């Protein structure tokens, strides 16, 4: 495949290495220093675009790909307020987009485990639950996209939680968290690639599930696999469609 990398930072550079190992060619690399190269002509040379840019840049990048009917894999987080509009525009213009808050197989297994545990916990109201995410200090968005997906999985399965609220530790103090609200605590610590935990606490014990990324290789490999999977498909997809676990919907 010929791949256009929209964003060539920590993730873009690792995706380049993974993609080349799997026999693909990188035909375009976009950073803030060469935005003029993001042209229809250059995008048309690619079979697929992979976007790991910034929350501010990603929407424009998506529409640039739509203009030339170039399938796009979106790993960038922090734009999900626009998700429904993008989905509508993607489908109305017969385009192809696959997005995911986290492309690693480990986190996608964790998403599934999280929903399974949340469904079980309906019978045990003595446990309250909260989500914690820890990331490096360059991260632009909070909560992480992964933490949002985890929280949505819990809200989907656990009847006593209806919405999530976020506290970025060290910035603003959150007001009292209501019983039907699910707290996501965000921590920013140097050099942490991404750690996510779900903690159920009762008076007598705790149950905790945790995913720790040791590096960014799992995210990068998943993004390349997603781009391969997207070949010859049309429509709007999530990384869950690639892994397609069946134990719980
Ligand atoms: N879904 C997943 O599995 C994962 C998602 N992410 C997400 O991916 C995104 C990128 O992460 P990361 O690589 O760590 O971030 P970096 O800051 O390291 O890289 C961002 C890149 O985007 C470039 N950029 C800035 N503006 C534009 C633009 N208008 N068009 C194209 N590129 C632009 C930057 O250019 P310059 O270098 O010149 O500043 C930089 O190369 C984040 O949103 C992060 O949350 C991260 C890991 C896994
Ligand atoms: O910004 C990051 O680094 C990461 N972002 C993603 C997110 O917001 O969940 C995925 C991963 O945790 C790393």
From TrEMBL:
Residues 106-242 form the Dihydrodipicolinate reductase C-terminal domain. Homotetramer. The keyword NADP applies. Belongs to the DapB family. Its EC number is 1.17.1.8. InterPro entries: DapB_C (IPR022663), DapB_N (IPR000846), DHDPR_bac (IPR023940), NAD(P)-bd_dom_sf (IPR036291). It is found in: Cytoplasm. NAD(+) binds at residues 75-77, 100-103. Pathway: Amino-acid biosynthesis; L-lysine biosynthesis via DAP pathway; (S)-tetrahydrodipicolinate from L-aspartate: step 4/4. GO terms for molecular function: 4-hydroxy-tetrahydrodipicolinate reductase. The gene is dapB. (S)-2,3,4,5-tetrahydrodipicolinate binds at residues 136, 145-146. Residues 1-103 form the Dihydrodipicolinate reductase N-terminal domain. Keywords: Amino-acid biosynthesis, Cytoplasm, Diaminopimelate biosynthesis, Lysine biosynthesis, NAD, NADP, Oxidoreductase. Transmembrane segments: none annotated. It catalyses: (S)-2,3,4,5-tetrahydrodipicolinate + NAD(+) + H2O = (2S,4S)-4-hydroxy-2,3,4,5-tetrahydrodipicolinate + NADH + H(+); (S)-2,3,4,5-tetrahydrodipicolinate + NADP(+) + H2O = (2S,4S)-4-hydroxy-2,3,4,5-tetrahydrodipicolinate + NADPH + H(+). This is 4-hydroxy-tetrahydrodipicolinate reductase.
